[in-house]
What does this fold into?
Amino acid sequence: MKTLHTFPTLELNDDLKLKGFRVYEAALCQTGHSMFGRRHFYKIVLSTGKTVITYTDRSSVELDGVCLYFANPHIPYSVDILSGEPGGYACIFTENFIKPLERSEILLQSPLFKADGNPAFRLTEQQRVKITGIFESMIAEQATNYVYKADLLRNYIQLIVHEALRMQPEDFSIHYRNASTRITNQFLDLLERQFPIESITSPLMLKTAQDYANQLAVHVNYLNRAVKEETGKSTTIHIADRVTTEATVLLQHTDWSVAEIAYALGFEYPNYFSNFFKKMTGNIPKAYRTR
It folds into this structure.
């Protein structure tokens, strides 16, 4: 019996390292539990049967029937497959694979990127047929030698996202078990919405834990305590990690000077940014860009 690969096998991991993308059919599902944790890939799944996805050890969403759900590497989660039926597809892809599309507004507003959104959708028969067709097209394209295959696969991902955004997921809601879970998800969503940085003239506005606490109308100590409790990382570390990720993107994919990137990311002086970047990555910005 085949098992729905909730997490990549060694073969899938090899494909992710080499190509950054893998799509596969899960012909049959088995019941089972995946360990709670953070993954290094995005995932879109067309599932059948009954599944419970748990986020940050506190909030959960139940899927029953034919469903489409999304997972991203920023949010820790676990999956419990309670019952399975024939059929199902999944695609997984890395941050680097999706980078050419990351600045698309449609992706930024999609379930792939939202930390405090609804990542699960029950499908009608018409929707199931349509999404199944997209997955089958991806599987067929994956096997070709077409030189622009990666671009086409990204377009298929966008098609699935568009279909998800058409749906009204009234059947699902994330149930927060306490206020800490709710405020943590609001913080993570607010953090993600600060990016990408599109212009040097529109720099990052929220830079500190206090800035985010003010926006969320909570005391900074409460925010720090909740985020640490739910994620194991401090608010400041989450902000620093996300700023570092954006810095690497700007260094790799723009012709902005290091000074311009520093100002865009909210640093008062370029040397402050250089010191921060070296502390976070082990490289100075110029050396990272050259590499």
Remarks:
- Residues 235-253 form the longest helix (19 residues).
- The two ends are 46 Å apart (CA to CA).
